[in-house]
Specification:
single chain; alpha/beta; D-Maltodextrin-Binding Protein, domain 2; 2 domains; six-stranded mixed sheet; 39% helix
């Protein structure tokens, strides 16, 4: 796994209460795997580091290679990086619990989504401590949707579709959509071969099917249907070892700092998602919200995936869904 430095000092915007001493020579190395959603990992970590006096330098390093995401956790353990942005799904190999964010329609109201986020935040913070890591932020990722050559009003309209699903979770969703359609939904291994892509609006214009096509209307003839409450998460973490070098910063104190900013971070993520959809529209795609029949299909898929996920998620999974069990 190669590390490549791509940026240096982070902008410091908000001071954390009760600043503690830090060496002016310290550099915190933040590992990322590519373009960050809003708010960016560098901005969020920069806010935290502003509470140390003087603030340490923040260096952003891009982790290269096909196994980049999977390699970030070992890089933290080895000390190759001091902090990282981890898609929550990248932790699912260690515990099925952290695949919860891959399940569509797990929480279908704003209040339920906040409650789910807050419970997952507490569980993740505790579990990361066991690995010598401190949770800086649990942030929304880009909402996922259906990018297709035509709009689907019902699952049956997917018959004959060639579907590109880039992750294990979206491949399972594609399988279940195929069942709901009555069969004949074919997975493909390259986005250029697909007429349906299960991606976010922001990711849509980065896939080769569009990125290698010249002209400002490269998505013309496609439709992006947003699916409510289908949004992965990402975690910004820092090692306890680095916090110790900086002079302190207890997990409880960082938990409190994080809780005062979560609403602002959610608002920034929502604004960026809307901007990505507008950019996709400017590239020629039509925008739509999934039909009631498609939303119901995704709701049923969420129920099935929850039932498949829960046995491996254990007591924490039951707690996350509001069942019995201690956090």
């Amino acid at each position: 796994m190669g590390l490549r430095r791509t940026a240096t000092a982070a902008a410091i915007t908000v001071l954390m209460a009760s600043a503690v001493p830090a060496s002016s020579e310290e550099t915190v190395r933040l590992g990322i795997t590519g373009p960050s959603e809003a708010p960016s990992a560098a901005d969020v970590l920069g806010e935290l580091l502003a509470g140390f006096a003087p603030p340490p330098r923040l260096a952003v390093e891009t982790v290269a290679g096909p196994e980049a995401v999977r390699g970030l956790k070992p890089a933290l353990r080895r000390g190759d990086v001091d902090a990282a942005e981890l898609p929550l799904g990248a932790l699912a190999r260690e515990s099925a619990l952290f695949a919860a964010d891959q399940i569509p329609r797990l929480a279908a109201t704003a209040g339920a989504r906040r409650d789910l986020h807050d419970r997952l935040d507490r569980i993740l913070s505790r579990r990361l401590t066991e690995d010598g890591l401190v949770l800086v932020a649990l942030l929304p990722g880009a909402p996922l949707g259906i990018l297709s050559r035509r709009r689907f009003e019902a699952p049956a309209d997917l018959r004959g579709a060639r579907v590109w699903a880039p992750t294990a979770a979206t491949r399972r969703i594609a399988e279940l959509l195929g069942e709901a359609a009555g069969g004949d939904v074919r997975p493909v291994v390259a986005p250029a071969e697909a007429d349906v892509l299960l991606v976010s609006a922001g990711a849509a214009l980065r896939v080769p099917a569009f990125a290698t096509t010249d002209g400002p209307r490269r998505a013309e003839g496609w439709t992006f249907q947003s699916v409510p409450d289908w949004q992965p998460m990402r975690a910004i973490v820092v090692t306890e070892r680095m916090l110790g070098r900086l002079g302190g910063g207890s997990g409880a104190r960082i938990d409190n700092w994080r809780s005062t900013r979560s609403e602002r971070w959610r608002a920034a993520a929502s604004e960026r998602a809307g901007r990505s959809e507008r950019e996709l529209e400017e590239a020629g795609a039509a925008l739509a919200t999934a039909s009631p029949a498609m939303v119901e299909a995704f709701t049923e898929i969420g129920r099935r995936m929850s039932a498949e996920w829960l046995p491996g998620a254990g007591a924490d999974g039951a707690s996350l869904l509001g069942g019995r069990g201690e956090e």
